[in-house]
Design goal:
Order of helices and strands: HHHHEHEHEHEHEHEHEHEEHE
GO molecular function, one term: transcription cis-regulatory region binding
CATH class of the largest domain: Alpha Beta
Keywords: DNA-binding, Transcription, Transcription regulation
CATH superfamily of the largest domain: Response regulator
Number of strands: 10
Pfam families: LacI (PF00356), Peripla_BP_3 (PF13377)
Helix content: 40-55%
Strand content: 5-15%
InterPro entries: HTH_LacI, LacI/GalR-like_sensor, Lambda_DNA-bd_dom_sf, Peripla_BP_I
Protein name: LacI family DNA-binding transcriptional regulator
Largest sheet: 4 strands, parallel
Radius of gyration: 26 Å
């Protein structure tokens, strides 16, 4: 059985009211420091953990922020955003709970299980869930509904821009016959298609050949894909992310294709392993820290009743290394 405040009161020899005042740090109460220390020590000795739901009910607000993620595999960008968002919210005394949403259960069941103060949505919310949140007085940041056409989790032009940035770098280095290495993960299909569109759009503007696309798994060398690109005269490959790019580098080594002498490779995300690859991987770095600061500032704005801040304007950038 869980330890209750009544158990703490009996063990300390004080009233439940006194225990409540001490544990909730109720202002305006006349409790001696000795009694306060006794209650706190007894609670700690018994392992008493106050109910977050009860605390929220007493205070009229929760100290919990829920971040709802779509069914995405979390990579370095999302991990960095969540890590920094946790730090930023902690400075305000708020806790971050991350929920990886699956379509098998409606989101409204989550609001019944926990009572968040703010919900940060990186995915679409059904309109009925948005209404339920707002009716419950729970603030919402970033989450549009399918009905209003917003998509907080994926900025289409930004994703296309990442592909364009890869192409711009490759063209500056003198490459003219590009290929695309994309992911087989259907959960990332929308991201992958947008980045592929960006590569194709930049190639069309530069009047270079339409790049052939190969699906590359990140768990094995992309040897056959490399051989196919070389046979087609491809001299550089824009990869969906660094994991795919590392598989392409491994495939080039296995196929005996020199990088970048015969085939240049550029990734995306700037994972730690990119600088340790052979050769070190040229990649695109996204502004994860700026994105996390913007989300934290948006949460603080809704809590304080202020307008949402403008989005981060820090651009993604090329990190040039030996692979191009």
């Amino acid at each position: 059985m869980p330890v209750t405040s009544a158990d703490v009161a009996r063990a300390a020899g004080v009233s439940r009211t006194t225990v409540s005042y001490v544990l909730n740090d109720t202002p305006g109460t006349n409790i001696s420091s000795a009694t306060r220390d006794l209650v706190l020590a007894t609670a700690a000795q018994l392992g008493y953990a106050p109910s977050a739901a009860a605390r929220a009910l007493r205070r009229g607000q929760s100290d919990l922020v829920v971040c709802v993620l779509p069914d995405w595999p979390t990579g370095p960008v999302v991990d960095t955003v969540l890590d920094l968002l946790t730090d930023n919210l902690a400075e305000r005394g708020l806790f971050l709970l991350v929920h990886h949403h699956r379509s098998t259960r409606p989101l409204r069941e989550l609001w019944r299980a926990v009572t968040p103060r703010v919900v940060v949505g990186l995915t679409h919310f059904p309109a009925e869930d948005l209404r339920a949140l707002r009716q419950a007085g729970i603030e919402v940041v970033g989450a549009g509904s399918v009905d209003d056409g917003a998509h907080p989790g994926i900025d289409a032009e930004n994703q296309r821009g990442l592909g364009e940035l890869q192409v711009e770098h490759l063209l500056e280095r003198g490459y003219r016959h590009l290929g695309i290495a994309t992911t087989p993960d259907e959960r990332l299909r929308e991201f992958a298609d947008l980045r592929t569109d960006g590569v194709r759009r930049a190639c069309a503007r530069a009047d270079v050949p339409v790049p052939p696309v190969a699906v590359v798994t990140p768990v094995a060398p992309a040897t056959e894909a490399v051989r196919g690109w070389v046979a087609d005269g491809v001299d550089a490959v824009a990869c969906y992310n660094d994991e795919i790019a590392l598989a392409v580098l491994a495939g080039a080594r296995e196929a005996g294709v020199e990088v970048p002498g015969r085939l240049a490779v550029i990734g995306l995300d700037d994972v730690p392993a990119a600088s340790l690859a052979d050769p070190p991987l040229t990649t695109i770095s996204q502004p994860s820290a700026a994105q996390a600061r913007h989300l934290a500032a948006s949460v603080e704005a809704v809590l304080d009743g202020r307008p949402l801040p403008p989005g981060p304007d820090e651009p993604s950038r090329v990190v040039p290394r030996a692979s191009t």
